[in-house]
Specification:
alpha+beta, six-stranded antiparallel sheet, two-stranded parallel sheet, disordered N terminus
Length: 604
């Protein structure tokens, strides 16, 4: 008759099967994790974010695949990673010819970025239609879809949700199964009796809301004498056990949930921080875009002056040939042409550099040619006094709300530190129901008649609480520091929003003055050009320089005004960002030229 399979062999088989099946369930488990993260992200940002944050990106990543590979490469285990650092003799430097066509090379650089410069670097042609034109809407959307800054801030929010999920899981029911296999022997005069012992413990634990924990366990113990010199060498027993510990003084109450409370609040803090970042990013990207527009306008202004200087050079040469001017006047006019040409080349180089840095910030390929469209009208300026603006900022600023709530965290930390000074008074109880001890193969037959229980109370007087007293003192100092930091941040917010309003007024004054100066210098230059036969070339050159300075000042003032309006909205936290990262206009901003604003009504 075949030997009957014993229960512990079934247990070992089950454990082996679980080890084999577990990897197959890994993908399903990971999918559940993603779903839970998505749910927490929606909860944390439901009333704060314009759009829920996704735990995984669906848009293609622009970075090389080898940078995002999660598999461990063999190079990660190399104790001495190789270094590429060739000796001087292994390098090769190729000097350029001084007769090379530098102007043509600069034109190719400019053409690659949508700046088509004609022969002689003057006369900008229309941008190549094949080069994508990047509007401000496109830039803001790209910053949110492929920008590294945005992704990093987004991941900070995701990590905060993961930390909360971990903490919530620790406070829920947790299941454990431990299987211990041991072998031992008793030796008598060189003869050994070997025994195989298997203990399987399946238990569930849970923390209690106001301190302590409970545990329910099912423990199965199977022992087999491998050399069955006596009958019934196999024994099995099991028992159900329930135990719990509850603190009544120290560690009791809300202090027991401190980690969970802080994790829940941290998720809200991070949601506010992320939304504040989105607004700051919009202002920063828009500011860079405005600077690119200003840089392109500076190129156009310089080209206009260069064309004017070339015309002046021809007219001066004709007058010298006619004997109406001295010969050195041609040299002066030619020098101005060369200076303007040099300045134009520098402006083109600066514009290309800024544009490439801008592409990097947006997460675009550096080699991808783009052109700034520059289609943008002025932002409407706010009509508000500094007192009202400060009140709005104090109410709306998300970062200030974080600091205010962290002040409550510091107060809670003081209360928790005081709780740590209390005596320890803990209650503990245990309840166990085993199988019949007289049945060697008790199996799962639980015998309620064999119930065991125990209860105890432990009082520990605070004879040594010096570290706890020091921690209480430290928490009180931290509370005072947090209060000072909050007061300072609040004052800084008031000063910042007031300064933003003053900057708007100052930028408007500067723009009005600059526009008037442009008109004055244009009229002056026009008048001098009408008197070209009697006016010295140097006088016209000075007028051209004054006009160029006025045009550049006007463009800088227009950029400053755009920036100042956005900075006011950011300082008062009235700036709103749409799902695609574009500006969301507020009621009353219908005339705004920012992307996302409705078109202004047509004039009757």
């Amino acid at each position: 008759m075949p030997r009957r399979a014993k229960p512990y062999f079934l247990g070992v088989s089950a454990a082996f099967s679980a080890a084999v099946i577990a990897p197959g369930c890994r993908d399903a488990g990971q999918s559940r994790v993603e779903q839970r993260v998505e749910r927490i992200l929606r909860e944390g940002g439901e009333k704060i974010l314009a759009e829920p944050v996704a735990s995984t990106r669906t848009t293609p990543v622009q970075y090389p695949k080898d940078l995002t590979n999660t598999k461990r490469p063999d190079s990660a285990l190399t104790l001495q990673p190789p270094t590429t650092n060739p000796a001087p003799g292994d390098l090769r430097y190729s000097p350029a010819s001084e007769k090379r066509d530098v102007a043509e090379r600069l034109r190719r650089y400019a053409a690659a970025e949508g700046l088509l410069i004609a022969e002689g670097m003057e006369g900008m042609d229309a941008p190549d239609a094949s080069i994508p034109r990047l509007s401000l809407t496109d830039a803001l959307t790209a910053a949110q879809r492929t920008g590294r800054e945005y992704r990093n801030a987004e991941e900070d929010f995701i990590l905060a949700s993961i930390r909360l999920l971990i903490e919530r899981h620790l406070w829920g029911p947790r299941l454990f199964n431990d299987t211990t296999v041991g072998i031992g022997a008793d030796g008598v005069e060189g003869s050994f009796d070997h025994a195989l012992d298997i203990i399987n413990q399946l238990k569930a634990t849970r923390r209690l809301p106001y301190g302590g924990s409970v545990e329910a366990a099912w423990i199965v113990n199977a022992t087999d004498q491998l050399r069955e010199q006596a009958t019934e060498g196999y024994r099995q027993s099991s028992r159900l056990a329930l135990s719990g510990t509850v603190p009544l003084l120290r560690g009791a109450g809300e202090v027991a949930r401190e980690d969970l409370i802080q994790a829940e609040r941290d998720l809200i803090y991070q949601a506010r921080t992320f939304e504040r970042f989105r607004r700051e990013l919009l202002v920063s990207i828009a500011s860079d875009y405005f600077e690119l527009i200003q840089s392109r306008q500076a190129i156009e202004n310089q080209q206009r002056q260069l064309q004017s200087f070339r015309l002046l050079e021809k007219e001066t040469a004709a007058k010298v040939a006619a004997g109406r001017l001295d010969a050195f006047q041609v040299g002066n006019a030619s020098n101005r042409v060369q200076s303007a040409l040099s300045k134009l080349a520098s402006l083109v180089d600066q514009h290309i550099f800024r544009l490439e840095r801008f592409k990097i910030r947006l997460g675009l390929a550096v080699d991808e040619p783009i052109s700034i469209s520059g289609e943008l009208t002025e932002l409407p300026e706010p009509e508000v006094d500094v007192t009202r603006a400060a009140e709005l900022a104090l109410d709306y600023r998300l970062d200030l709300q974080n600091e205010r709530d962290r002040l409550d965290d510091a107060r809670r930390a003081v209360a928790n530190a005081r709780n740590a000074l209390l005596p320890d008074l803990n209650l503990r109880g245990e309840l166990s129901i085993p199988t019949d001890p007289d049945d060697p193969t008790g199996g799962l037959s639980i015998s309620a008649d064999e119930l065991d229980y125990a209860a105890s109370a432990t009082l520990s007087l605070p004879l040594d609480r010096e570290p706890e007293r020091l921690r209480l003192r430290a928490s009180m100092i931290q509370l005072q520091r947090q209060a000072r930091e909050y007061e300072q941040d609040r004052d800084n917010v008031i000063v910042e929003v007031r300064d933003s309003l003053r900057r708007i007024d100052n930028a408007r004054i500067q723009l009005s003055i600059a526009e008037r100066q442009v008109e004055i210098n244009r009229e002056r230059l026009r008048g001098l050009q009408l008197q070209i036969d009697t006016v010295e070339p140097q006088t016209i050159i000075d007028a051209e320089n004054d006009l160029l300075d006025a045009e550049n000042s006007r463009d800088a003032a227009r950029t400053a005004l755009r920036d100042s309006v956005l900075n006011y909205l950011l300082a008062s936290d009235q700036l709103r960002v749409g799902r695609d990262g574009a500006f969301t206009p507020l009621p009353g901003m219908e005339s705004s030229g920012l992307p996302g604003s409705p078109a202004a009504p047509a004039a009757p």
